Amino acid sequence: MTRHEMLKGKIALVTGASRGIGRAIAQRFAAEGAMVIVAGRQAGESDDDPGTLRETVALIRRLGGSAMALQVDLDDPAQCVALVPRAVQAAGGFDILVNNAGSAEYSSIESMPLEVFDRTVAHYLRVPFMLSKAAIPVMRERGAGWILNLGSVTALAPVRPFHEFERCGGATAYAAAKAAINRFTEGLAAELQADNIAVNSVAPSTAIRTPGSERFIPDGYPVEPVEYLVETALALCSTPARQRTGCIAHSLHFPLAAGLDVFGLDGAGKLPPPVVPAWAHPGLLRSDLQEG
């Protein structure tokens, strides 16, 4: 199943792995030899229950990979606090933490209820903080580690003149939380580099259609394949902190900047080099060239 076994002997904890980007990352990491702990709300009752942890584990095992599931509701602070100890107990520890889980809720600031704002900040900043804080001593004891946060291109300043999405899309609070997680990533990278723990962020360069994002993507909008983001995630979680940390990467731009080959989720089938569309944010290429 593996191509280069880049993650052989490594254990990865991936949140929000019952579907979408989290599942794709789990599949790709397993294809490179990692034992993957998939965490999410929907456990499932059978291996073919769509959008569940059982389905994710079955997909990985079917191709010879190794995976286990931990059901968790990260909206519950007690369950969030308990996730890292549960993962350590189940697998003996882990080397990689992927903070992917979250559910976007878009609304203008004027009409956004406070509880929606609070959930947005909790999903995209508080939960990654809690899990990262708990993971640090686990990784330090193992001598190395990788923390990967899922970002968003909306974290960048709006292009002027303002587009329709910026004026009416309702992404302001979400974008602010994603901008915060980028700064959190950079600061934590500085704190942990001496411990050989790399901290990076990856985001779509444009948009990836997933079960969680499709309601915000207009019909006919040209989306990008998830494989480019996943290959970037793999590169960020297999390079030592002394070589790369504090990177804010984007799915189409980073492979081009780093000369990265992109493969399918099973580690086979090389994809063509990414093409950055004309509508991509103009501030991205410079950022990824600096980090690549």
UniProtKB/TrEMBL annotation:
Keywords: Oxidoreductase. It holds the Pfam family adh_short. Residues 10-205 form the Ketoreductase domain. SUPFAM superfamilies: NAD(P)-binding Rossmann-fold domains (SSF51735). The keyword Cell division does not apply. The keyword Cytoplasm does not apply. Transmembrane segments: none annotated. It comes from the Bacteria. Belongs to the short-chain dehydrogenases/reductases (SDR) family. This is Ketoreductase domain-containing protein. The lineage of its organism: Bacteria, Pseudomonadati, Pseudomonadota, Betaproteobacteria, Burkholderiales.
